[in-house]
Amino acid sequence: MIDVEVIETSSLGDRSYLATDGEVAVVVDPQRDVDRVLALAGRLGVRITHVVETHVHNDYVSGGLELARLTGAAYVLSAEDDLGFDRTGVVDGDVLEASPRLRLRVLGTPGHTFHHLSYVLEGPDGPQGVFTGGSLLYGTTGRTDLLGDEHAEALARAQHASAASMADALPDGAQVWPTHGFGSFCTATPASGDDSTIGREREVNPVLRLARDEFVRETLSGLGAYPAYYAHMGALNTAGPAPVDLRPPTTADPAELERRLADGEWVVDLRSRKAYLASHLAGTVSLGLDGPMATWLGWMAPHGAPITLLGDTPDQVAQAQRELVRIGVDRLVAAATGDPHELAVDPARLGELPSAGFADLAGELDGRRSADLPPAEVVLDVRLGTEWDASHVRGAVHVPLPELPDRLDEVPAGSVWVHCGSGYRATAAASLLARAGRTVVVVDDMFTDAADAGVPLTTTP
Question: Which of 111, 231, 345, 450 is the most buried (most CB within 10 A)?
């Protein structure tokens, strides 16, 4: 049997893979920080012969070109993609021989992109599984609108045909190894599960259960927003990304932090939201490493904006830097570590934010006021549109978090109680509102508990 190792990038909802026969290995869809792949290959004592991409990625900067350069491996992409560098171009039906025991058979599976490929992993006993990239995912498929809304319907039709031909070409027991689908915005609908087979997908996946036109209608109607930084990823990957640079950014002293905050720059607090609520530098934005920091920062901050990171420790800053280079944020202007009291020029520059639960909000809404908290004059929901449509607080104002920096003036006057699905985005939103001088309370609670707490909910027709 061929061994398949998973290299998880949970912060972006993606997976890379290393498949090996014990001597040689092929790597599928590597992230930009390829030191993780090299370390794994070193631990296993295997030589990487091929680095393959299922498609030109729109959600992260690929490490494939650099990994191939460092290892001498063949760099494999679709022969139909117009790229700014040399590679081994392949098309449907080609076979890549890594060793007599390890082969990849190329399947043309357009849908997520026009030239999307999947790779069937074949060992001595035949097909073992298939690397599906953004084609067949766990219970769903890759979204079809990333190359433009005008192509979404045609690509959805292609996605349906690709999934059917893939399923027909493989046994039910073949493993399915997707790149996207673990929280990635590249999925048409949320994926489910942690592993799957072709047989299971036949039973549960709409692309294999629905007729083509019904699948297309369902797919197109379910597409929500996706991060703004996606607009830059495809171009970077097409041109050929530069090698990753993870050298520590310049250290900022308290006076420099004060200047950057005064200039309205993005100074990001990486600590947990609990720590941020208790004490922080006024004007900073809360995006803790306990959530998808890079996704929300890359979505909200203008492309190329100066970004400064604040963490408890250098390790926190290094982790955040690693996550940000994956989406092309390469040049941090500064960083600082330590307690907010140590980083403040003046104790008056320290802030804190009150928090509450949905039970407290229910009391506010039915007139049972809390003397310890500002009144809930405005309830602000910062979840995405699909979440809002499914269920929301009656009478709430809706501004999705990624749009909030440009729509702060649309939040009605009064003290604001802000919520999301869990408290992470609410804290980020509250930090933006507080920076703009608003009085705010963070609803640090699970939205799934709102109804049981007595909060009146409704849906969008």
Answer: 111
CA distance 173 to 201: 11
Per-residue pLDDT tens digits for 268-313: 999 999 999 999 999 999 999 999 999 999 999 999 999 999 999 9
The yes-or-no verdict on residue 194 having pLDDT over 90 is: no
d(CA 345, CA 349): 7
C-alpha–C-alpha distance, residues 186 and 116, integer Å: 14
* CATH fourth-level superfamily of 3-239: Ribonuclease Z/Hydroxyacylglutathione hydrolase-like (3.60.15.10)
In angstroms, the CA 305 to CA 308 distance is 10
CATH architecture of residue range(s) 355-458: 3-Layer(aba) Sandwich (3.40)
Do the domains 3-239 and 250-351 sit in the same CATH topology, yes or no?
no
Count the residues in the chain: 461
Residue 1's pLDDT is 78
Q: Which two tokens stand for residue 177?
A: 């190894």
Task: Dig out the tokens for 91 from the structure.
Answer: 């098309």
For 217-235, the pLDDT digits (tens) are 999 998 989 999 999 999 9
Three-state secondary structure call for residue 47: strand
| Chain centroid to CA 277 | 25
pLDDT digits (tens, 9 = 90+) for 29-74: 999 999 999 999 999 999 999 999 999 999 999 999 999 999 999 9
Q: Are 8 and 178 in contact (CB under 8 A)?
A: no
Residue 425 confidence class, pLDDT cut points 50, 70, 90: very high
Tokens of 230: 């996606």
What are the backbone angles phi and psi of residue 258, rounded to the nearest 5°?
-60, -40
Residue 183 has pLDDT above 90, yes or no: no
* Beta-sheet pairing, 88-90 with 74-78: parallel
| Domain assignments of the chain as residue spans, ordered by start | 3-239, 250-351, 355-458
Fold of 250-351: Oxidized Rhodanese; domain 1 (3.40.250)
423/442 Cα distance (integer angstroms): 7
CA dihedral 139, 140, 141, 145 (to 10 degrees): -170
Strand duo 117-123 + 102-108: pairing: antiparallel
Q: Could you count the other beta carbons within 10 Å of the beta carbon of residue 35?
A: 13
CA-CA distance, 322 to 316, in Å (whole number)?
A: 10
Q: How far apart are CA 225 and CA 382, in angstroms?
A: 13
Pair 248, 318: CB distance under 8 Å: yes
